[in-house]
Specification:
Oligomer: single chain
Number of helices: 5
CATH superfamily of the largest domain: Glucose Permease (Domain IIA)
Transmembrane segments: 29-50
Shape: extended
Strand content: 25-35%
Largest sheet: 8 strands, antiparallel
Protein name: Peptidase family M23
CATH class of the largest domain: Mainly Beta
Radius of gyration: 26 Å
CATH topology of the largest domain: Glucose Permease (Domain IIA)
Structural class: alpha+beta
Helix content: 25-40%
Distance between the termini: 71 Å
Keywords: Membrane, Transmembrane, Transmembrane helix
Order of helices and strands: HHHHEEEEEEEEEEH
Pfam families: Peptidase_M23
Domain M23ase beta-sheet core: 104-171
Number of strands: 10
Number of domains: 2
Length: 191
């Protein structure tokens, strides 16, 4: 009899763990499904439009990297807002290997922002190629030049480790603090 009672108690505990579909759970589920169906509808309409009009600018606009990040951010904020947040901040040091003069490289062909800041200048120049200037903490302006596919725009906020563009073999990295050019090593000591 004791074994049978133990089994019944365990079964009763298992039944109690499952939450019934109460009003709050139903509302969350219902809201999620409505939002999900709206997103599916927008995606289907967009894909149909691109398929019917292959020369349209919609394809370029949707597949643009900045718009992709904005859309995925919106989806995670609105559709998945009911999920518990288990965000863990990870600090990673961005470092580059010195090649020669002001030329640097890293383990990939991506130019990553060394620190968080604001883009104060961007463009292309005959001598610098593609370039991005970021004003970071301690009023240090960091110039990344000879880069391809610049992925940030003027006045964008950038985070540490954000991809700014790409490079072929090496790129130029210059630091300026209060109007005076400083070396990469001096910059690292400032942190």
């Amino acid at each position: 009899m004791n074994d049978l009672d133990d089994v019944r108690k365990r079964m009763q505990k298992r039944r109690q763990i499952k939450q019934p579909l109460n009003d709050d759970n139903f509302k969350c589920f219902y809201n999620f499904m409505v939002k999900f169906m709206v997103v599916i509808l927008v995606v289907l309409v967009s894909v149909s439009y691109v398929k019917l009009n292959p020369g349209s600018n919609l394809k370029k606009m949707i597949l643009n990297d900045a718009n992709y990040k904005m859309v995925t951010s919106w989806i995670s904020d609105t559709l998945f807002s009911f999920l518990p947040s288990d965000d863990v901040s990870v600090s990673s040091e961005i470092s580059y290997q010195h090649v020669e003069d002001d030329y640097y490289k890293n383990n990939s062909n991506e130019v990553l922002s060394i620190e968080a800041g604001r883009v104060i200048e961007t463009g292309t120049d005959e001598s610098l190629g593609g370039y991005v200037v970021i004003l970071g903490k301690n009023n240090v302006s960091i110039t990344y030049s000879e880069i391809n596919n610049v992925m940030v725009a003027l006045y964008d906020e950038v985070d540490q480790g954000m991809v700014l563009g790409s490079y072929d073999k090496k790129f130029i990295l210059q630091f300026e603090h209060l109007g005076k050019e400083i070396s990469y090593e001096e910059y690292q000591r400032m942190e």
